């Protein structure tokens, strides 16, 4: 009887701790969603009632505590790429284009946010009676509006690192030299030109965030949530913690305030989807080894400019290895006999196949994590966001070769391909990297869940708030101190200067009197 009573007490305690959680994700990319899905799935399995706004619902009927609001229509908004945009999107941005890309990307995000808020299911959620704890994808502060609406703690999360403006919302220090924005096309070691770019971009992104993005997003929020909503710039600074899917072994080492938590990495909860019979047979028969080519889920291979596609075709037709190419279009014109194409490939399972020896990738973080886990070296051809840094990390640690699109040719691609396929050091180095990244005290998913429930238990985490958030900008930049020191130094040197003039005049008078006395 006592035992039953104890179980009942424990049950009610557990039930009392279960929360009603809203998980807001807005970036329409399956690689980003793969990081978030395990988290809201695990929260649901732990008894929390979870509502996820997502472009990639899981539709798992066994998760009775999970409600998914489907915003997959975002994928259809992308449309077909105009030909003139293809070269622009596939090439790593230069000094000036990086600013234009960031400006256009943020404008595109705002357009998506408007479509999300127009959704009837999202509107029912906003104007309903339910109360939530909110977890929001934190590339932009848009998701924070839900926390303000429901007057609850806010947890921010990203599927990679965080841009400088997002780190600013938790008062995290950022320095353009040792912690540049992850969107910049620069690697681990910064040249003088890189340092100039990083400094200018840091200033630009802070000003753009404050004077362009926040007013635009705030106007959008008030349109759909109501005019009584606080200013979005104030909402964003009420974030409790920020969870980052980054690993300090792989990523740039940088200082973080207590409210920023590095998860290490969050792996997919799902077992890798099996390879279809045709693809599996092709891999099994590829005794010389297989090269895998994919540009991820955001940019499609079929959108490659014709000149770049021709380089791949010519190269593949002249190598002794088979190739698996994630090709999303119809029949690939001019496809060599040793090339196998498929619109969608279960990447994790393919990389685990023993005959796969090399991965040609754009360098997205999830692809890099999967290939490191499978011990498959890379040729990285970066185009945007953190891809340049990721590829440079592979080069730095000796498990990959990087090629920029402007230097991509049949010769450079073939040389890089033959180097990795015939040099065992790349394989050895990626195994070392995997061991380093796996050696951590707690799994990334468990760490994320613990911190989310920590915020829920304590109804926020104001005790982790950085004091820099409550300091005026001029005090943060020490302008008042420099001003006082400048005035003091000016007065000191001015007084010294004036005293020197008086002293010189006295000396002159004394000297003239002495001369006059001697002449007399």
Automatic annotation (TrEMBL):
CDD domains: GT1_Gtf-like. Residues 1-18 form the signal peptide. It comes from Henosepilachna vigintioctopunctata. The keyword DNA-binding does not apply. It is a single-pass membrane protein. GO terms for cellular component: membrane. The keyword Nuclease does not apply. This is UDP-glucuronosyltransferase.
